[in-house]
TrEMBL record:
Organism: Rhodoglobus vestalii
One Gene Ontology MF term: UDP-glucose 4-epimerase activity
Pathway note: Carbohydrate metabolism; galactose metabolism
Record field: catalytic activity: UDP-alpha-D-glucose = UDP-alpha-D-galactose
GO BP field: galactose catabolic process via UDP-galactose, Leloir pathway
Source organism superkingdom: Bacteria
Top class in the EC scheme: isomerase
KW tRNA processing (keyword) present: no
Necessary cofactors: NAD(+)
Protein name listed in UniProt: UDP-glucose 4-epimerase
Domain NAD-dependent epimerase/dehydratase: 4-249
Keywords: Carbohydrate metabolism, Isomerase, NAD
InterPro entries reported for this sequence: Epimerase_deHydtase, NAD(P)-bd_dom_sf, UDP_G4E
Length: 325
């Protein structure tokens, strides 16, 4: 059995591909390299350079590599930018998912793990988000992910597609020093880039109703996220019962101030963050309950805050050293 990893040259997808290989599960990566890097692709995993809007290429890849399941990670993942580029976001995340499902149906591929997002919840007024928390996405990105879940649900009714969706918030760290977070919008890269440039990282708002006044979020290690994708794929392969969606949450969360303190300790670069005004729409706390995923997908937080920061920092330094050589 072979699993196609869409977006497998990206930060999360490349970790999923490595996790599949470590589990002795055959994989093939499909990526258009619009944001992924060829250097992230493991040497022993076949690579197809294609956009998932191209159904002909998808069908050819599925046929050539004997694909039996798909782990769908590819997508446009920038919530803030999606507000400015809604049509692009829907094209990349909704139309492309429709195209992928059409190719799967044509090739008889009947199982899929969908990389969804906790953005489907918007800003829920609860301390702990569960799978049944109302879905009220606040951006085209969050809406596109929710539509993706609906597409899988409806295709399951029509064709018997077996599926699950994995929702998570802030993915951090590195499970392989050759793979790092390249996003210009995520907290860890923003803090690291500021430090490397000799600038002071910034905190947006310190007057929230939280223990230290800064936002509290789930920060989950990318290797744990990848392992959950593999566990979901195994469960589908075994035809075991599986929920339509799982939250990959920490259950307690970390504040931005805690992350900043850990970064200073790990990097050895002392700094006092600059304080900026709150960003519009930022809720004080969003943390997800991961009990269902713990029950079914071997989900757990295997890394401490320091380990998450250290692995990310070491991967960032390696990337800088590599670019300088």
């Amino acid at each position: 059995m072979t699993w196609m990893v869409t977006g497998g040259a990206g930060y999360i997808g490349a970790h999923v591909a490595r996790a599949l290989a470590n589990a002795d599960m055959a994989a093939v990566i499909v990526d258009d390299l619009s944001s992924g890097l060829i250097s992230f692709i493991p040497d022993d995993v076949p690579f197809v350079h294609a956009n998932i809007l191209d159904k002909v290429s998808l069908v050819q890849a599925m046929t050539t590599h004997g694909v039996t399941g798909v782990i769908h990670v590819a997508g446009f993942k920038y919530a803030g930018v999606s507000v400015e580029r809604p049509l692009h976001t829907y094209n990349q995340n909704v139309t492309a998912t429709v195209t992928l499902l059409e190719a799967m149906q044509e090739c008889g591929v009947d199982q899929v793990v969908f990389s969804s997002s906790a953005a489907v919840f918007g800003t829920p007024d609860v301390d702990l988000v569960t799978e049944s928390t109302p879905k009220q996405p606040l951006s085209p990105y969050g809406e596109s992910k929710l539509i993706g879940e609906w597409l899988l649900r409806d295709q399951a009714v029509a064709t018997g597609l077996r599926h699950t969706s994995l929702r998570y918030f802030n993915v951090v760290g590195s499970g392989d020093p050759a793979v790092y977070d390249t996003s210009p919008h995520n907290l860890f890269p923003l803090v690291f880039e500021a430090l490397v440039a000799g600038k002071t990282p910034r905190i947006n708002g310190t007057d929230y109703p939280t223990p230290d006044g800064t936002n509290v979020r789930d920060y989950v290690h990318v290797a744990d996220i990848a392992a959950a994708h593999v566990a979901a794929a195994r469960r589908l392969e075994a035809h075991e019962e599986i929920e339509p969606a799982y939250n990959l949450g920490s259950g307690d969360g970390l504040s931005v101030a805690q992350i900043m303190a850990a970064v200073a300790a790990v990097t050895g670069i002392p700094f006092t963050p600059e304080i900026a005004p709150r960003r519009a729409g930022d809720p004080p706390r969003i943390v997800a309950n991961g009990d269902l995923a713990s029950r079914d997908l071997e989900w757990k937080m295997r890394f401490s805050t320091e380990e998450m920061v250290r692995s990310a920092w070491e991967a960032r330094l390696r990337a800088e050293k590599g670019s300088a050589e």
